[in-house]
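Q: Here's a chain of 586 amino acids. Please give me its 3D structure as tokens.
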Amino acid sequence: MNPRDQADHDGLNLNTPHDDEAEDLVIGAVMHSKQAYTDASSLITRDDIYQPSRRLIWDTVAGLIASGTAEPHPVLIRAEIEKQGRLREVDNGNLIIKLGTDYLNPALLPEFTERIYESARQRRYDAHSNDLKQAVRNGAAGDELDALVQAFHQGEQLRENTGRGPAHLVAALLDWNSFFATDFGAIQLLPGKLMGPGQQITLVGDGKAGKSLFCQEWMWRMATGQSFLDDTPQDPVRILYLDAENGQEQVQERFLSFGAGPRHMGHLRYASFPPVRPLDTAGGGADLIALVNATGAELVVIDTVSRFISGPENDADTWLSLYRHTLLPLKRDRISSVRLDHFGKDKDRGGRGSSAKTQDVDHVWELSAQGGGTLSLKRTHTRTGIGPDEFSIVRQARRDGDNWAHGGTRHIVMTYEADSGMAAVPGTVEHIVAALDRAGVPNDAGNRQVRQKLADLQISARNEKIADAVKYRKTRTEKPDFDVSPEAFPDPLPQTFPGTRSRNTPGTDKTPGQTFPGTPGETPGTPPVPHVPPSERGNGEGTAGTGESTKPLCTICDTPLNPDWATRGYDTHLGCDPTTGSHPAA
């Protein structure tokens, strides 16, 4: 009689949990594929396999791969087991033939491997339960039972966090000589100056800000060795981008608008809606690490993080599990990560969900739309304090017929054609004045008219700042030779976002279909598209100019410059690029 079939007369559980079906399918898969073995072994070990015959096949596959065999095969496995004189343990080879003919779709391998992992975990808990029962029967004291429970949970925690045993813990001890020989102060920030190598950051923003668009351009330029946000170009970085937000047609449109192409993607690897398990589980962490190993990634992007978790966002345990299973292994291996997140209902409190989600990151950046085509990027939390804390950014884009112009979309650090550097700081009087000037608002416009125009431009400002700006602009109304027309202050961004109209041109009743490449229009108040495009030297209504201008002309677009701008030695507009020759009117 099989001992496992005996009645449980002593109160101990003798029915050991196991999953024969999952073991057969996974073993059949690893006999044919080195990659299948690598993926499965990232989650389970030989000890997780319950059936001894299947464990023997697993060990044989592992030995073949370790010896340099390109790919395992049932014939090779049978030969190896026969050499060991253990063929009878696999039914004289018949089991190898049977399992080798069962096909498992590679996409299902993680699911059945997870089943083996869970069965093995149940067996460990079952054995632990039996140990406790036996200890109680033997008269163990409470302290002894506590020690048994504590030792068991420590072992489970170690298995989940590393899976590599005490040797891994010893390897984590610092070597003081190499540690103090490392000049951490000399480490260069990654392009854009938003993070350093090996750091983890969160980029938070609302749906109108275009977090994905910003991050996609940032990653593409970093992966191709280009500069970003006026930073110095560096060597290309190997990047893995996980995207569960944007459709592939949107992704293609955006990368083309950046200037990318099939032969110009550098070291960027892009996973569109990847079938990874939730990253707040052990299986999900194993999936991501397998992708990182396959791509050699130095930086991982998770867009958007809420799409890659299974637990409630408001539960701190969800984010602690995400860190334990996914982010901790990345940080341990000095692999950087960027995770995108949405604002909560209360924007002032940052990202939605539990506050635990930001406790493990090195920096938290908040991206928000300021109106008029400008963005504010502020660092609200930091562990190091290294690098800038705030950026004022302009999103540029150009149309080419019905499509976005190739290479016409980019994010740049904002500067204004104004006397004061405060014009770049949203909410200041200088910023309001510069925005009104660029929009062609008359100098004698009153508070009500200015307030309405700022609302149209989606620019927030306090009433006292608006009053100061109106007063300042009225004091210069009578000054001669100061032209604030759209011709004298050409809009450096003819499209405030890709897909919206210039702020200097009249509108129609139609609402634009897109706010930026690949994204449907979201904001009902977006300025309408002009029915007739303005001419290069006309009056902004689509009519021809009445005569030649006597003002200095931009050397790129051949339109008048702001006289104050020209007298300071500048010969191009902000939106005109001397390097590529591109300009807003192109």
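Q: Can you summarize the key feature?
A: The chain has a mean pLDDT of 78.
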